[in-house]
Amino acid sequence: MQIQCNTDRNIAGDEAMTQLVESVAHGALDRFSEQITRVEIHVSDANSDKKGGSDVIRCLMEARLGGMQPVAVTHNAGTVVEAVDGAAGKRQRSLESTLGRLNQR
After folding, report:
1. CB 6 within 8 A of CB 40
2. CA 58 from centroid of its chain's CA atoms
3. Segment 32-47, tens digit of pLDDT
């Protein structure tokens, strides 16, 4: 399972952040590693162009399953960790549902 992490210009995409994002993704998705070929994670600041207000960090997580169209989930939160963790949880539940339906056929 290959994991690719991308950030916008308002989020520092340093090595520590990349390792954190990859470890959260592995923790949530490792049990599906046989079916997943690639995971793309995009972290961005949704309020970067606005003055004031709370920061909203958006994490989009897209998983590509072998022989299927990629499926994406998003999660908004106040920090990068919360956004990535929320998206990983949604991605995990979505994969459980999708793969469960495929296995029933």
Report:
1. yes
2. 10
3. 888 899 999 999 988 8
Q: Is the pLDDT of residue 98 over 90?
A: no
Distance CA 77, CA 86 (A): 8
- H helix intervals, the chain: 15-29, 80-104
Residue 58 belongs to what H/E stretch?
A: strand 57-65
Task: Give the CATH number for residue 35.
Answer: 3.30.160.100
- Render 3-29 in DSSP notation, one character per residue: EEEEE-TTS---HHHHHHHHHHHHHHH
Q: Minimal CA–CA distance to 64: which of 42, 85, 40, 90?
A: 40
User: Average pLDDT over the chain, rounded to whole?
Assistant: 87
Strands 2-7 vs 57-65: parallel, antiparallel or unpaired: unpaired
Domain that holds residue 6: 2-104
Q: 19 with 83: CB under 8 angstroms?
A: no
- Count the domains in the chain: 1
